[in-house]
Amino acid sequence: MKTRSLFISFFVIILVLIALPPAFADSSSLTITGDSVSGLVFDDLNGDGEYGWSVAYGEEPALSSVGIQIYRDQGILAQIDNADVLVAQAKTNEQGIFQFKGLAGGSYLVVENDLTNFVSVTANVIAVTYIPEAVGSTELQIFFADRQVDRSQLSKYTFLPLVR
C-alpha cells in the first residue's frame, strides 16, 4: 500500500510540473537597440501570452503599479544570481508601460514582480542584450503577460520548488 501511495504522489508531482505555466520556464532572451529598454505589463484575459484584442474579451487591459527591476547580468548569463547588480527599478504607469533610459550597452535582466492576485503567463525574467543608439524606438520591446486569479482556488494545489 505504501508503494502505491508513493507512486501516486510521484505521478501527481509529474503532472503538476508538466502543467506549470510558462512563467516557470527558462527566461526569454532578446536584443534591443535604441535609447531605452521599455515594455508593457498587461492582464492577459485569454491566457495566450500575447497582447491584443479578442472577440471574447475585448482589449486586454494594461496593469499599472507593477514593480520592474533591471539588473546588469554579470554572473551566469540569462539567470538571476548573486553576481548580478540591480541598476534601476520602476513601476508601470497607468498605461502599463515601464522604461529604463541611460543604460550602458551590455547584458541585462529585466524582472517583473506580479501584483497580488495575479500570476504570470509569460516568463518573469527577460534576458536582454542592449545596444544603445542615439535614435530611440517608439515601439515597446518587452511584454509581460499576467492573469488575475482567485487566490482561494490556489489552495487546492500544492506547489513544490523547482530545483535544477
Describe the structure.
By secondary structure, this protein is mainly beta. The chain has a single domain (22-154), classed as Sandwich (Immunoglobulin-like), CATH 2.60.40.10. It is built from 2 helices and 11 strands. The chain has a 5-stranded mixed beta sheet, with no helix packed on it. A 4-stranded mixed beta sheet has the order 7-2-11-9, with no helix packed on it. A hairpin with a 3-residue loop joins strand 3 and strand 4 (58-59). The longest helix has 18 residues, at 2-19.
List the helices and strands and how they pair.
Layout: H1 2-19, E1 28-34, E2 36-43, E3 53-54, E4 58-59, E5 67-72, E6 85-91, E7 97-101, E8 106-113, E9 118-120, E10 125-132, E11 142-148, H2 151-154
Parallel strand pairs: 1-10, 2-11
Antiparallel strand pairs: 2-7, 3-4, 5-6, 5-8, 8-10, 9-11
